[in-house]
Amino acid sequence: MPKLPVVSSKQIIRILQKIGFQNAPKRGKGSHLAFIKTDTDRTRLVIVPDRNEIPKGTLLAILEQAGLTKDEFIRMLND
User: Fold this and answer.
1) CB-based burial of residue 4 (10 Å sphere; 0-12 exposed, 13-18 middle, 19+ buried)?
2) Does residue 14 fall inside a structural domain?
3) Dihedral of CA 44/74/2/60: which sign?
4) CA distance from start to end of the chain
5) In a domain, 35, yes or no
6) Which of 11, 23, 42, 68 could crosslink 7 through cysteines, CB 3.0-4.6 Å?
């Protein structure tokens, strides 16, 4: 399994938007941005801190909230 790279919030947001997440401005507070995606069976809410470098633990939590695996995220990051 490849190692997670250090990424910025802008890179994460680009990938979230690519897979169908939309900005939810009334949900984010302060320096955090919120993105929402509604599927037929559930609604996913992802909160992304606005930072240049996202800590690995935070990135893993974001991936879990978004329903992405590490491999899927890395593949989309390289596209």
Assistant:
1) middle
2) yes
3) negative
4) 18
5) yes
6) 11
